[in-house]
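Troubleshooting log. The previous structure file for this entry was overwritten by mistake, so regenerating from the original sequence record. Sequence copied from the archived sheet and checked twice against the printout by T.R.
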Amino acid sequence: MSAKRIAKSGIDWAKFAKLVPESDRAMFTAFKGKSDVYLRKVMSFPENAPAINWSEYRTKIVNKAVVDELEKAYKAVSVPYPEDKWTSSVDEQEKNNENSVAEYCEWSRSKVKEAEEMLQKFKLMIPYDRMTDEEFAQTFPDWSMTKEKNSLYPHYEFTPGMSKEEREEAKRKPDYP
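Regenerated output below.
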């Protein structure tokens, strides 16, 4: 019976392995190893409880009522398979997240496309160290200086003189005598 239950909830490890990034491969391998150990342990157990020859016990034990009582108790034991409480919750979460995953995939594809276009631009352009300012402005209009954006990276706004904190620090008396 345990084999049938496990077969229903089997994991497609090949498909799972394709989804695991290279950086997490060691953790995935450890997880799969533990899962295989648990699976072998469960598979080592018999599907049903072992049968007991009660007639043999009746011949060897004087008090037959004890054997009858034990037999009745043994046959009454029933270990139910645990109720699955989580699959429906996980399925619901999966349905809720499908839209956000699709949006993220679309966003990722657009970013990859932008990066490929930029890479193509870099392959075709004049090497940066040979460009004039005009060529740079034509190649990268968003990155170049204009009247509205009159500084290049790192775009710090700087006012000459000390800042308020520096002036207050200068006014304080020194710690030495």
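The chain has eight helices and no strands. Archived copy saved in two places this time.
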